[in-house]
Write a structure and sequence with these properties.
Elements lengths: L1 H9 L6 H7 L2 H15 L11
């Protein structure tokens, strides 16, 4: 996530996600939303006898 946001944060004096989000084009916003969604998904517990 930090690598994805780095180019946007370099352009800002007030570094926050809202400002970075404003700099993104539609494609970058979609990728950002996808990455953020992956971070927020709960981890599935390991079930040893699943099969």
């Amino acid at each position: 996530m930090q690598r994805f946001l780095a180019p946007y944060m370099d352009q800002l004096t007030d570094k926050n996600l809202g400002n970075a989000h404003q700099l993104m084009n539609d494609e970058a916003r979609a990728e950002f939303d996808r990455l953020l969604g992956r971070l927020m998904e709960p981890v599935r517990p390991f079930t040893p006898y699943m099969f």
